[in-house]
Amino acid sequence: MSEKPTKARVLALWGKGGSGKTTSALAIASLSATAGHRTLIVDADPQRSASEWHSVSENPAFAVHSTDVGQVASLMERARARYDVVIIDNPPACYAGSAEIAKRADLSLIVARPFRFDVTLAIEWVGRLQRVGTIPLVALTAAPPSRLNTEPPSVKAARAVEAGRGFIVASADYASAHSPRTDSTRFGRRQYGQQQPRPP
């Protein structure tokens, strides 16, 4: 993300509670803001975790706006005019308005842990998004660490199930994601990035 986009990009994140969806949204927003992009998280998750983090963060590098999921689609065009990157943290369930969000977003990312129940729900999400003409990506989070460059069985199984259905799948190693070097993936009171968003 070293070059500023010529057009605002909208990324919609989907996934069940506890999948790492909001943490992923915060990490992506941090990377985007650090690269110099005006970045906004639209917090449509009823838990408001992103908004809570933002309220206690010192000098956050990106903006967070909380809203009802039914208002997200109409908000997206206004956000495109003011920001370079817009990240939508969607609710953990399908709501009225979800289909319209998926249609208007440039990219949808489904976040899931590499376990049977989580993967089953991720596949259901893929089906919903495909029915509205969206081809989502899938990210496996909290994956057990690799041993001798070999993925754990749970990660292999999840990747095989999802890839077999034509999904593009990536996984995040839990150990490396929580190492001291990876500040952008740490969820807490500390600042996610040093650079402030430019005013619109």
Features:
200 residues; alpha/beta; Rossmann fold; seven-stranded parallel sheet; globular; disordered C terminus; DNA_Partitioning_ATPase; Chromosome partitioning protein
Textual characterization of the structure:
- The protein is of the alpha/beta class.
- It has a single domain, classed as 3-Layer(aba) Sandwich (Rossmann fold), CATH 3.40.50.300.
- 36% of the residues lie in helices and 20% in strands.
- It has a 7-stranded parallel sheet, sandwiched between helices.
- The longest helix has 16 residues.
- It is globular and about 45 Å long.
- The two termini are 19 Å apart.
- InterPro entries: AAA+_ATPase (IPR003593), CobQ/CobB/MinD/ParA_Nub-bd_dom (IPR002586), DNA_Partitioning_ATPase (IPR050678), P-loop_NTPase (IPR027417).
- This is Chromosome partitioning protein.
Major beta sheet, strand line-up: 3-2-4-1-5-6-7
Annotated CATH topology: Rossmann fold
Strand content: 15-25%
Count of distinct structural domains = 1
Q: Report the count of strand segments.
A: 7
* Separate helix tally: 7
Quaternary organisation? single chain
State the name of the first-level CATH class. Answer: Alpha Beta
Shape assignment: globular
Note the run of SSEs as H and E.
Answer: EHEHEHEHEHEHEH
Q: Please tell me how large the radius of gyration is.
A: 16 Å
Give me the secondary-structure category: alpha/beta
Protein name: Chromosome partitioning protein
Domain AAA+ ATPase: 7-167
Region (Disordered): 174-200
Biased composition (Low complexity): 190-200
